[in-house]
Design goal:
single chain; about 130 residues; alpha+beta; 2,3-Dihydroxybiphenyl 1,2-Dioxygenase, domain 1; 2 domains; five-stranded mixed sheet; four-stranded mixed sheet; 9 strands; globular
């Protein structure tokens, strides 16, 4: 039997705002939005594929406090691109995205750190 990483849970304040941000501003695709009564099963996928994000609405104070800090202040999400200049320009123009630095060259590729609308830290990377 083979396994692979299929999804990662991302804690958000509300479903509709998170869907709008990740789909409209980051260009993700809405893969599922299933009402389960008390909660919804919401999955979004980055434009070029890969694992999905399950958008999980915070249900208590501890979860609310974790919004934007699931990586404990570190970059913990890595968005790979095949055209850094194109995607850096697109994300720089999007509402709710803030780049923390100018693009830089590293041994592994071109990278820049940004924060999403909810405070999550991401690397935009074009590998060498």
């Amino acid at each position: 039997m083979s396994t692979c990483l299929g999804s990662v849970s991302l804690i958000v304040p509300d479903y509709d705002g998170a869907i709008a941000f990740y789909c409209d501003q980051m260009g993700f695709t809405l893969m599922a939005d299933i009402d389960q009564g008390r909660k919804r099963w919401v999955e979004v996928r980055p434009p070029a594929g890969g694992p999905t994000f399950v958008l999980a609405r915070a249900d208590n104070d501890a979860q609310t406090a974790a919004i934007g800090n699931q990586g404990a202040g570190r970059v913990w999400l890595f968005l790979h691109t095949d055209d850094f200049a194109r995607d850096h320009a697109r994300l720089s123009a999007a509402e709710g995205i803030t780049f923390e630095e100018e693009p830089r060259a590293e041994p592994y590729g071109t990278v820049a750190v940004f924060r999403d609308l909810f405070g999550n830290r991401w690397d935009l990377i074009q590998k060498s």
